[in-house]
Amino acid sequence: MQSSTSARARAPGKIILTGEHFVVLGAPAVAMAINLYTYAGVSRGWAGTIDVTADIPMDLAGKEGPGEAVKDTARLLEPLRLAAREALAYVGRKLAGVRVEVECGIPIGAGLGSSAAASVAIIAATAQSQGVKLSVDDIIKVAFTPESYLHGKPSGVDHSTCATGGVLTFRKPDIVKALNISWVPRILVCDSGIHRSTGSLVRAVIRKSESEKTLFESHVADASRISLGAARALKHSDGEELRILLNRNQELLVNIGVSNPTLNHLIEVALKAGALGAKLTGAGGGGCIIAVCRDSKSETKIGKALRQSGGMVYKVGMDSDGVVVWSGGEHSNRLSGGSV
């Protein structure tokens, strides 16, 4: 049996504030890590084998369509196994064997970064189990492989946000800029309960962009202005400007066909209940919306209205740590962007 040190890691979920889909086409996106988490524990295993188990509460798995629960566990586990394999290869331990246990606290296929958080946590813990503490930059690099397996052509924004934490702007291929903001918006996430494949939705938008080039050039330009404006609004605590930009972003997402009647209804409910702004977050086709609330009173009112409309509501805050990793009885350590 290959000797290795037990290690654990935790990675947060994420929300896209502006720029989803268009970030794949070259526009910047603004994303925030949130305090929903996935944990990965890695211990020694038989040489050359990677065993993965995952605790995924079924209420987080949602549905892939009307009446269709997520049941393909092999499809869920393969990218997790790939994350461990890539991490072992990256640290020069291809022949090591590990057992990986994943505890998921992030809804699956809902646009909240569940796969990215799992990949990031597994990579950090697997490397740590071999006595190597990877930097955030290293983890982001390695995570691109399992994310590509699952999503086809990911932009990189999901796993970059889960690894880095905080609020950031992202532009392909790997330009990540942390935003120092004085105002963290009060945000509710509402899960529609309908979960879709991010990869299939991304591929559909890419095909559409290739067949409607002129229209999408305009959309990408609009999305770029929205994300740059959103970054400024967050820096200057300008809630009114953020409201305008979030709602405009949602209009673009409707125009390219990734919203749906359920999401549109939940957004309308949130706005009527007093949300500053509301939009889908992530790939769309189902999944979640975000609603920015003016204060605690409006947050309570909006949350109640969304629950009465059939949504699962999460009150989320910003995670500022990103991925954290520890060995044995150690306390968790936040990773830095450089080598450690």
* Average residue-wise pLDDT: 89
Query: How many structural domains can be distinguished in the coordinates?
Result: 1
* Proportion of strand residues: 15-25%
Number of E strands: 14
Can you identify the CATH class? Alpha Beta
Order of helices and strands: EEEHEEHEHHHEEEHHHHEEHEEE
Strand count, sense and barrel status of the largest sheet are: 8 strands, mixed
Question: What would the keywords be for this entry?
Answer:
Ribosomal Protein S5, domain 2; globular; 4-stranded antiparallel beta sheet; 340 residues; 41% helix; disordered C terminus; 10 helices; 24% strand; alpha+beta; 14 strands; 8-stranded mixed beta sheet
Description:
This protein is of the alpha+beta class and 340 residues long. The chain has a single domain (1-329), classed as 2-Layer Sandwich (Ribosomal Protein S5, domain 2), CATH 3.30.230.120. The chain is built from ten helices and 14 strands. It has helices spanning 58-61, 73-90, 114-129, 136-151, 157-164, 198-211, 213-235, 239-255, 261-272, 296-308, and strands at residues 7-18, 29-44, 50-55, 63-65, 68-69, 98-104, 167-171, 175-178, 186-191, 277-281, 288-293, 312-316, 324-327, 333-334. The strands form three sheets. Strands 1, 2, 3, 6, 7, 8, 13 and 14 form an eight-stranded mixed sheet that branches. Strand 4 and strand 5 form a beta hairpin. Helix 7 runs antiparallel to helix 8. It is globular. Residues 64-71 and 336-340 have low confidence and may be disordered.
In short:
41% of the residues lie in helices and 24% in strands.
